Amino acid sequence: MTKKVTILITAVLIFVSMNLLAQHGARGRDMVKHARFGIHMAEKNLFSGSMLLKFKDEIGLTEEQASKIEKMSDLFQEAVIRKQADIKVEGLKVRSYLKEEKVDRKKMETMIREVAKMRTDLQVGQMNYLLDLKDLLTPEQIEKIESLKKERRHKRMEKRKYFKEGRRDRGQSSSSPRL
Is the pLDDT of residue 179 over 50? Predict the structure, then answer.
């Protein structure tokens, strides 16, 4: 009996520790994940409403398109905020439940699966939002987005090349000691 309690307490501590680490260390990892996700979406011509609105003149959005995009973005952001809050509340409930002396494994599994389902629903909602935005665009506008993307990628590459060359010209390298 003592061995089972020790194992259960250890499992709970590991779960809580991982959850705390995930919350506090997630910022950096999330930024990388979002960057990769954004790059992948850009390659598939899926862009957020804020990005489309930022370049509305360059891609030739009509006032009607811009208005629809703005409304869709606002509704999507509201839904995301609500869903993320619900996910956090459910996560707190799981953690609170795991602190109880007697934990029903089936109830615990159901609670964790519900949180996972909510996260999945959030991702599916995001993809549907991006696809709905794409559906508002004409093929010509998508082409303009592609050309803007290539142009910006080229500028980033030139900028990186410039900075790398500048560092070499000054005799600095990443392994040089700084004074």
Answer: no
119-166 pLDDT, tens digit each: 999 999 999 999 999 999 999 999 998 888 788 888 888 888 777 776
Q: What is the pLDDT of residues 59-68, one digit of tens each?
A: 999 999 999 9
Q: Where are the alpha helices (DSSP H) in 44-138?
A: 49-54, 56-59, 63-98, 105-136
Query: Domain 33-154 is in which class?
Result: mainly alpha
Cβ–Cβ under 8 Å, residues 70 and 56: no
End-to-end CA distance of the chain: 62
The token pair at 88 is 């956090």
Q: Where are the domains of the chain?
A: 33-154
Query: What is the number of residues in the chain?
Result: 179
- CB–CB of 134/46 below 8 Å? yes
R_g of the chain computed on alpha carbons:
24
The three-state secondary structure class of 138 is coil
